Amino acid sequence: MKHLALFWAFACGASAASAEDWAYVNAALRAWLQAIEADVSYLLVDRGAAELRLMHGKALLRRAPLAADSLGARPPVQSSLEARLRRYRPSTPWRGLVPSPFDWEQNLVAEASATSALYFASGLLIYASPAWHRPSNMDLQIGAADLRALYNACGPGTALVVLPANWRLGPQR
Predict the structure, then answer these.
(1) Bridge partners of residue 125, in order along the sequence
(2) I need a surface site. Which of 33, 40, 135, 151 has the fewest CB within 10 A?
């Protein structure tokens, strides 16, 4: 009986969905499967669960609840980390600093702070501090502790996959 109810719920949702909706959900799921098969760390945004996850293959490494989601209706389903941003200005910006294991101040600067952010090739920005939010940008806000962990764990090129809010039951209007 439970399977019959699930079938009817899925069939009713399927009849209301357009081909574009199905294509979008399928593209997101395909990107997720590719990230799993790559066997490297990646970020997964599950908009239905309102959380950002650090994953490695199928393994969940960290779960970060979303404080704010400004991605819009159909953000790109896949992107890669382009830069780890900091609000830091060295006293002599024209001179490159070479950190050493004994340079504790420089090592602290290389670590994340509450005002750091992650910028992706698609234009998506993940941050904790509301200073980064702009009304016209695609962005996600998470907690400061979660941002520090993700900032330190993800390097340039880390994949990001965005699952739509309705990916579990299929598109609905």
Answers:
(1) 119, 139
(2) 135
